[in-house]
Amino acid sequence: MRIQLTVNGTRHDVDDVWEGESLLYALRERMGLPGAKNACEQGECGSCTVYLDGVPVCSCLVAAGQAHEREVTTVEGLADGDALHPVQQAFVDKGAVQCGFCTPGLIVSTHDLLERNPHPSDPEIREALAGNLCRCTGYEKILDAVRTAAGE
Predict the structure, then answer these.
(1) What's the pTM value of the predicted model, to 2 decimals?
(2) Burial environment of residue 67 by CB neighbours within 10 A (0 to 12, 13 to 18, 19 or more)
(3) Ramachandran area for residue 148 (φ above 0: left; ψ -120 to 50: alpha; else beta)
C-alpha cells in the first residue's frame, strides 16, 4: 500500500508499506529518519516517541497506515535547521544523553510537557517522563536537563 504523510513539515509518499508495518519502521527504514529508536517494540520504553497530529505516541504501536494523511513530528523535527531546540540543547548541556537510546523519546516527552506546563514541579516532570525508560542513568541528569529547558 502507499501512504502519504507529512513528517517534520515535509510531505512524503511511501510505497510498498505492508499491512502490519509500524510507523517506527516506516520512519527509520523507509524515510531515513533514525531519531526514534527501536527498543522494546511493545510501547513500554518510550524510545520511539513521536508526535502524531500533535499528540505523543509510541511509533512502534502505530501502524504506518494509520498515519496516512496525518502529520508526524520526530525528534529531528524539533530542531530549527542546525540549531537545536532548547530542550535538545539542555539534554546535551547537562550530559543527559549517555548512550542515546532513550534520548529521542525523552526529548519529545519533555517538549510535550513544557508545551503544556512551562514550569513543572519535580513530581510533574517525573510523572510526564514515567513512560520513558533509561538503562544508563539514575535519571538525575535527565531531570536537570528538563529543569534547564523549563528555565529557558
Answers:
(1) 0.95
(2) buried
(3) alpha
